[in-house]
Design a protein that fits this description.
- By secondary structure, the chain is mainly beta.
- Helix content is 6%, strand content 37%.
- The longest helix has 4 residues.
- The chain binds zinc ion (2 copies).
- One zinc ion binds next to loops.
Length: 71
Amino acid sequence: MAKLVNLPERRDVDGTWHQVLRDVCYWCGCHYLYAEDDHDLVWEPGTAQEKACSDEDCECHTAPLVGQHRD
Ligand SMILES: [Zn+2]
Ligand SMILES: [Zn+2]
């Protein structure tokens, strides 16, 4: 796959770099990141809760996946 320009990169738990895209958490409205080459590989906000957050107990805050696959 061609490498897209101007996308930020994040490292997953295995130390592999991925280009990432932003999306909005379905449950609470906060932004999270997912890998451009693997949409189930996510970086959730954890304690970085946004003003527009509608559920501070959302799992993306209480049990964030950071560079990990969701089930
Ligand atoms: Zn959330
Ligand atoms: Zn939130």
